[in-house]
Amino acid sequence: MGRRKNKHKQEISPPNENRQDPPILKPEKNSKIQRDLKKDTSDSKEVDCITDIPKINETGAMDLQNEISFETYHPSSERFTGREYYLYSLCQVCKRELVKKVTCPKCNLISYCSQEHRREHWPSHADLCDAVVAVCVDRGVKHIMQGAHNLPPDKFRIFRFKNMIDCETKVERPLEGWEKEMFIFPNVCGICKEYNNLVVCINCKHNSFCVGHQEKSNHSQWCEHVLQFKLIVEDQSKFGVVRPSIPVCEIQPALPKLSDINCFFQSICKYLEKFEYLQLTEIATCPLTALNTILKTKTELLSTKKISLHIVGAESDFETSNLEKWEYYFLHLIPNLEHLQVEFIGPELNAKTENEKYTVCKQCLIRNKSISFKFYNNLYHLCSGKSKPDLVCVFNPGLYRSTGFNGADTWSPSITNMLAYGSPVLVTEYTQKEILMDIERVNATRQILLKSGPSRNPFSSLKPSLNFVSDEESPVIFKNYFHCVM
């Protein structure tokens, strides 16, 4: 169904060479952004861009080092092994900052903190390194990024994608996620795409620029989030991926006044370790975004006994993971609601293993509250047996893409089916650019009037990932960052 939750990471979708981008909305007003990056005169070749960096949430960012009030939640130390990442500013072996950078002398794409780590990693890197060299020989260039200088954004995306495909063809095997990132997120000037003689931001120590180009960048707006992503990668490489305990939101006697995801967790949690908190926002974003949509656009549902949600294009690692989130952050927050039915529909779901009976908490049992989950391993328009929804939710779908599941255009008939119920349809995206393209795609299928948005979603995830689709606007993305209601 055109899903690509990880397209900015492991699964990189080919850019559309002929696509015309829709007009971009004016950005929301923020606190003063310091855009002048000044070159450091030391030998480190760094620039300073830390002053007055705006926070992701305009209502005030949460101090993750401070305690907030919640009595029963204690941070979980449980971790699991995640995948390997590539960041050109970190050693590929130990993920430490490159104080003394040792770059691979053959491909010039990957770096290490020492010769020892370069030699240690060589068995994992050798075949791809040889492929990069072979592609350069075929093209008659010294560096695979030669030819990228001053390319416009869409052509630069095509250039990077072609680099990845050409090297994958040479190596004769599918590239791993970190190997794809070598080509998708190379170390080049953020303005002109030059790969030589770069200066690096003194704060995040990641984004690079040519001398004289740093003042043209909007990097200061995103610098702290780039740094946050680096810290997540470093933390995961040392300790594994965070698997936090899910704090229980008590059943509310009255409808909550929701403002944003920061304030929500401030009201229910006491202790929050930074990386746990970021992961919790990614867990809670879907139910809180759905609930906020009902609060804003269909308040009559708040007095009903039963609500039915359709989650279209659901995936096991996002919408259906941590199922208790739908109980704690939706069912518990609507006093009159007795039963919540959530139906997950997506071709990548394993309906047999996921259709297990769910038991609600003691609070719900006492108050006769219940929740049921149904899983359909199918495309939305082909799924029979689903109930009439009160709200259809489509999280980060990429509706604008002409090819989706199994390379086919599966969104057109599903869009028609989603709108046929006459219920509100919530659509979210990683970026402003994508939500506008989604709306354009829906309008091409059927003319619609928006009930809300497109706008920033106050209940988006705060956990950053790197951006490929529109990195000229923002180097990082967040799940459910923009939303609209149709």
TrEMBL record:
Keywords: Metal-binding, Zinc, Zinc-finger. The keyword Transport does not apply. Residues 26-45 have a biased composition (Basic and acidic residues). GO terms for molecular function: zinc ion binding. InterPro entries: Mss51-like_C, Znf_MYND. It holds the Pfam family MSS51_C. PROSITE patterns: ZF_MYND_1, ZF_MYND_2. Transmembrane segments: none annotated. Residues 1-45 are annotated as: Disordered. Residues 91-129 form the MYND-type domain. It comes from the Eukaryota. Coiled coil: none annotated. PANTHER family: GH20023P (PTHR28069:SF2). This is MYND-type domain-containing protein. It comes from Homalodisca liturata.
